Amino acid sequence: MEAVDILLEKWRDRGLSIDAGDNATAAAADVVVLATPWDGATQTASSVEDQLRGKVIISMANALTRIGKEFEPLVPPRGSVAASVQAKVPHCLVAAAFHHVPAKELGDLNHPIESDVLICSDHVEAGRVTSEIVSKVPNMRPLDAGELAMATPIESFTAVLLQLNMHYKTRVAVKFTGVPEPEAATGVASVDGAGADGKTDTKANAKAKVDGKDKGQAAKGTASA
């Protein structure tokens, strides 16, 4: 309860509607962001499977470890955390997203975030809902990254961002060039449409910030389990 009180006091001018609760309470939300440490994601989802049935679940955890001064990606049994969650709760609509977004800045409503958000899912509805949530955050752009199998390289790439953070003593995020804005192309920024030609400019600009903390924070205005 104390954490909720702190948030409401800090953002009193925002008119936020936030309630404290356990995992079961969070799972009762229409859309659930699974923002636990990566090795607890499947267990958490499984514990509230009945409440999650048929709902969109956004997985944002990255399976990483630190060996010496290097961050290295780990590969869960299903290839990614998101795929493992989908296998554990098959009646849910899992989307992978927010892996490269700065966790600290994501929790600061006064701090602008300029970042693309790669979204992948096997479910059109999950991609659509996740894209809508991302679009509501100023300066953040949702990008359709394909089916859930793409969560493997997306989650692993976070290790590269953390290495850049350490090397340059900053926080970085990913911004892709060459991708048309949603109003200029059909379906480029949402999972329920096809890309213009299937090609993406892979040049990325390190513009914003990602920190090395676990993504154990909920997306703005969305419940987390």
General description of the model:
By secondary structure, the protein is an alpha/beta fold. The chain has a single domain, classed as Rossmann fold. It is 30% helix and 18% strand. It is built from eight helices and ten strands. The strands form three sheets. A six-stranded mixed beta sheet has the order 7-6-5-2-1-10, sandwiched between helices. Strands 3-4 form a two-stranded antiparallel sheet. It has a two-stranded antiparallel ribbon with strand order 8-9. α3 packs parallel to α5. The longest helix is centred in the last third of the chain and has 18 residues. The relative contact order is 0.18.
CA(first)-CA(last) distance: 15 Å
- Give Rg in angstroms: 17 Å
Count of separate structural domains: 1
What is the annotated CATH architecture?
3-Layer(aba) Sandwich
Strand content: 15-25%
Main structural class: alpha/beta
Uncertain runs: 184-225
Question: What oligomeric state do the depicted chains represent?
Answer: single chain
Assign the CATH class: Alpha Beta
Shape: globular
**How many beta strands in the DSSP annotation?**
10
H/E series: HHEHHEEEHEHEHEHEEE
Profile the largest sheet. 6 strands, mixed
Give the SSE map.
Layout (H helix, E strand, L loop, with lengths): L1 H9 L12 H5 L3 E4 L6 H7 L1 H4 L3 E4 L4 E4 L2 E4 L7 H8 L4 E4 L6 H4 L8 E7 L2 H12 L4 E5 L6 H18 L5 E3 L27 E3 L16 E2 L1
Summary of the model, kept short:
The chain has 225 residues and is α/β, with parallel strands linked by helices.
